[in-house]
Each structure stands twice: as structure tokens, then as C-alpha cells.
Write a structure and sequence with these properties.
- The protein has about 325 residues and is mostly beta strands.
- It has a single domain, classed as Pectate Lyase C-like.
- It has three helices and 28 strands.
- Helix 2 links the parallel strand 1 and strand 2.
- It is globular.
- About 45% of the residues are buried.
Length: about 325
């Protein structure tokens, strides 16, 4: 028997790492880069995660690993820290599946575990990940769209319920002059995004009508009751009408979405040379069925944080005599 198994110190350390991220978990599946067969980590993972009852636990294809998971079983997919999994869109329709990049975690960008679409024309791959399931988790991942078809304009689409994402970077690298291309198209229900980056500073998006975080109905779903905490939302465009967050439908959200400790940036000279346009508003919205709440948030290279719209609320000074706390005020 190999000295590397789930009962060894090495195997136990891996299981403890997973338990720290997903306290209650089902089976564990590992995805490694197929080009890394000469690396020790590849060999050790293959030894630790042997087939159980005829079901493989070790894969070199993310889609194959996902196919092996069971909905509502809290199965975990671990992705190698030095891997780029380029494939057609992964539709995550199962519930309680947890994706974890093994690069140490804690990063807002430059994650070692990458999921993306290839730079080819595939109309069906409208996003790198299309999340429709309930209570799925994403940690320590870089998720990118590079497809060339006109429909490939989203890094990720989330219409699921209870999604949790932490320490991830989502971006769109293609169709940069197409309206409404975005890093994240969001129509989720009771979701929580923490310490993530949407968009980036090096790829110029020269389209006036686009935002890294696009809150818009999709597939019959509408964004509602969700949190964005400690996130950076980065626009890089010469168009002054491009924003960081956009809600362009009156019924684009229901109830509320709260942003706490978030930074909205127009990344001027992000490539070292090209000055970005100063955004007219970092947040644009025409919502009438819900509100955007911004607590302890700020922006740079923007004329106004948000447009003058009653759906956008930000921190304000409490007008009462005791001055305790703050009362949020609308942008009109």
C-alpha cells in the first residue's frame, strides 16, 4: 500500500483543509492539469484519491469531475493550484457542489486555479461558468471568458440561489466592443460574494454600454437579497458612460442588493499608457422594484459615485441630535 492515502498525514492534511472550507462535505474529487504528470503533487494526489466503489476521484478534466458529483451531496472539487482548465461552458445545475482552488487562497486576483473558455467561436459557451444550482460554492478561482462568438460576452452568469464565492477573480477578455459584455452577469437569489475582483486593469473595454458587474434578468431569474462584501469592481474603458455596476432594467432587481466595503475603479493607465475615461457615474441604475445599498464604499476616476436615481442609497450623516450611526440616503 502507498504511504500516501487518506489515512496518512498527507491525506489527513488535505481532508482537514477541505473541512476548514466546507465543514460538512461529501465526496472529494481532484482535478489536475494533464500536462503535469511529471510533478510530485500530481502523483501524490493520484495515490491519495483512488477510485471508490468504481467511481474515479482523480481527473484531468473539470467537466468529467463535475459529471461524477452528486447533487445535494456537498461534493467537493479540488483544482490544482497550477492549472488552467479551458473548456466549453460549465453549467453548474446541481446543488451544493463546492469548487476550491488549491493555491493557498486569500487572493483577489492572480489565482493559480483557472477556469475559462478557449479563444474560439462557440456560440453556446455564453459564459465560462453558468451557475443555476442552489448553494454552490466557489473559492480561490480565476474565471474568464475568451470566446470569440458574438454571444460569448459573460465571464460568469449566476442565476442560482445561495451562491457563495470568496477570493475569486472574474473577467471577460473577448468581444470588448460589444454592448453589455461583463465579468459577472448577476441574477442570483440570496447570494454572497466576498473578497472578489470583477473586471481588471489591463484589458481595454472600449464600449460605452457595459459594466464588469451587470445586474440583469436572465433565464427567468431576477437578482435579489444578496451581498457583495469587500469586493473590487474595476472598469477599464475610454468611454465615460461605462460604469462599474449597471442595472439597466426597471425590474432588474427585487428588494435589495447590499455592497459593503467595496471599491469601484476606472483603471486609468491600467496598461501603463492608455488613460481611461473618468466615469460619469460608477453606479448606474434604473431599477424600480428594488434598491442598491452601499455601506462604506468608494470610487476613483468617477465624476459621481452613482447617478441621481432613487434606487441607489449610500452612507449619510444621521441628522438627529445625538449623531449616533448613519442613515442611508438615496442618490436623488
Amino acid at each position: 500500500m502507498s504511504n500516501y492515502n487518506q489515512n496518512s498525514g498527507y491525506g489527513q492534511a488535505l481532508l482537514n483543509m477541505v473541512a476548514s472550507q466546507v465543514p460538512t462535505f461529501g465526496r472529494i474529487f481532484v482535478v489536475m492539469d494533464p500536462d503535469d504528470t511529471d510533478e510530485e503533487t500530481y502523483q501524490r494526489m493520484q495515490e491519495v484519491f483512488q477510485p471508490v466503489e468504481g467511481i474515479n476521484r482523480f481527473y484531468t478534466s473539470l467537466s468529467d469531475a463535475y459529471d461524477a458529483t452528486e447533487s445535494n451531496n456537498n461534493d467537493v472539487i479540488l483544482l490544482d493550484a497550477n492549472s488552467a482548465h479551458t473548456q466549453a461552458m460549465l453549467t453548474v445545475s446541481k446543488n451544493r457542489i463546492h469548487f476550491i482552488g488549491m493555491d493557498g487562497g486569500g487572493r483577489k486576483n492572480s489565482q493559480g486555479s483557472k477556469i475559462g473558455t478557449p479563444a474560439t467561436d462557440v456560440a453556446a459557451s455564453i459564459a465560462a461558468i453558468y451557475n443555476t444550482g442552489t448553494r454552490n460554492t466557489y473559492r480561490n478561482l480565476k474565471i474568464t471568458q475568451s470566446g470569440t462568438n458574438a454571444a460569448q460576452i459573460n465571464g460568469m452568469i449566476d442565476i442560482g440561489e445561495g451562491t457563495y464565492m470568496e477570493d475569486c477573480n472574474i473577467d471577460c477578455y473577448s468581444n470588448l466592443t460589444t454592448a453589455n459584455h461583463c465579468a459577472l452577469k448577476f441574477a442570483g437569489d440570496t447570494c454572497h460574494y466576498k473578497n472578489c475582483q470583477f473586471g481588471g486593469s489591463t484589458v481595454l473595454h472600449d464600449e460605452a454600454n457595459q459594466a464588469p458587474l451587470y445586474i440583469h434578468t436572465h433565464g427567468g431569474a431576477t437578482a435579489r437579497y444578496s451581498y457583495f462584501e469587500g469586493c473590487d469592481i474595476i472598469q477599464y474603458s475610454t468611454a465615460t458612460t461605462a460604469s462599474c455596476i449597471d442595472v439597466d432594467e426597471a425590474a432588474g432587481l427585487i428588494g435589495w442588493i447590499k455592497f459593503k466595503d467595496c471599491f469601484l475603479l476606472s483603471a486609468s493607465k491600467g496598461n501603463g499608457a492608455t488613460a481611461a475615461g473618468t466615469m460619469a457615474e460608477a453606479v448606474t441604475s434604473v431599477a424600480t422594484a428594488g434598491y442598491l445599498y452601499f455601506q462604506h464604499c468608494s470610487s476613483a476616476f468617477a465624476t459621481a459615485f452613482g447617478e441621481a436615481d432613487a434606487s441607489i442609497y449610500g452612507d449619510g450623516v444621521d441628522p438627529s441630535a445625538n449623531k449616533m450611526g448613519q442613515i442611508m440616503t438615496p442618490g436623488v
